[in-house]
Amino acid sequence: MLQPKKIEISNQPSIELHIKQWLKYRQAVLVHYSQLSAINLIKPKTLDLFCQQLMDYLSFGHFKMFEKLAAYQQGISNKAEVGLDNDLMNNIALTTDAALDFNEKYTNPKTLNDLSQDLSNLGENLAHRMDWEDKLIRQYSKFYH
Length: 145
Description:
By secondary structure, the chain is mainly alpha-helical. It has one domain (about 15-145): Up-down Bundle (Four Helix Bundle (Hemerythrin (Met), subunit A)), CATH 1.20.120. About 75% of the residues lie in helices and about 0% in strands. α1 runs antiparallel to α2 (about 45-75) and α2 (about 45-75) packs antiparallel against α3. The longest helix has about 35 residues, at about 45-75. The chain starts with 14 loop residues before the first helix and ends with a helix.
């Protein structure tokens, strides 16, 4: 059974620390996703916990990381074109929408009939999202290291 995992969040403003925290959220989602995918009979509480972890991960990325990465990139360059890659951000936004749809459908679900297929689709979306996030992190690394 999935166990809630408390993610420690530092108040230090370092972008590197925020990236580490973001990756901890991501790891928690991956662990819970793997566990959820392996369970034959899923309990609603288990699914609720996964949905909460998913929302925490998405929220941290959206409200902390994307804004911070853009601000740091803007802060080191006078060029107007510096900022987060629009194609990457648009792709990530599509995966956010898919994850939000999953969360809406499976928070207090009426049925779990489509869960297996929906989990598979979510897993595919998360894999793409994480690849795109890694590209953003690599872009950050080029500017700061």
